[in-house]
Amino acid sequence: MGLKNWALLLADLVLPAECAGCGESRSRSALPGLCTLCALSLSGPPLPAGPPKPAEGVPPVHALAAYLDPVPEIIIAQKEHGRLDLARPLGVELARAAEAAAAGADPFWLVPVPSTHAATVRRGQDPMLRMARVAAARLRASGRAVAVLPALTHRRKVADQVGLGRRERSENLDGALAVRASSARLLPERPVVLLDDVMTSGATLAEAARALRAAGSAPVGAAVLAAARLSTRLS
Predict the structure, then answer these.
(1) Single pTM value for the model
(2) Separation of alpha carbons 223 and 164, rounded Å
(3) pLDDT tens-digit profile of 143-155?
(4) Rounded CA gap, 163 and 219, in Å?
(5) Pairing verdict, β 108-112 and 192-199
(6) Domain residue spans in the chain?
(7) In which element (H, E) is residue 12 found?
(8) Class for domain 45-227, per CATH?
(9) CA of 216: how far to CAs of 32, 100, 152, in Å?
């Protein structure tokens, strides 16, 4: 038995048996932790994303999928339900969107949108930071000079965005993020690509971009796993 087959056998033994997307028995697919059909939902080419009138200040965004079933279940499983086995396959896919968002920049920073301290404690992880590190490793393996810079931090509490309208989302996040002092001197050394899991109104990415611009480093683009609205035009 070859090394690849041994690795697949080991994965079958130690990873959850259910697909994170549909809950059915997991079959081997290109994305561990997902069945073949659910894996396909994230395997398309990165597309420009965003609502017709995104929040002011949002950089150009590329997404891998529309935020439709089974994508929400996959993201929530990794984010809230302890499916840490999904960080690697999702990070590998996110790398493709990040490369598109970089628009030819090389080298560049990957700057993930941070979880709040309370969310990190509750989850026992920062999902975006974990996926960002996988994405950076994937891009470096392909010859790109990429590194993760966890430059952003929350400087005040924010309400849960679920259920808030466009204006309420923007007001909730206004001034919520700042650049860490330890990262401020490093940011100008490379272009920046923001990373997040989902884009709806764009309020979160707009606030992250505002904080970076205030530190003298406007992001060249942003990459997300899924967006509420996708373009049908290939980038």
Answers:
(1) 0.86
(2) 23
(3) 999 999 999 999 8
(4) 28
(5) parallel
(6) 45-227
(7) helix 3-14
(8) alpha beta
(9) 39, 23, 13
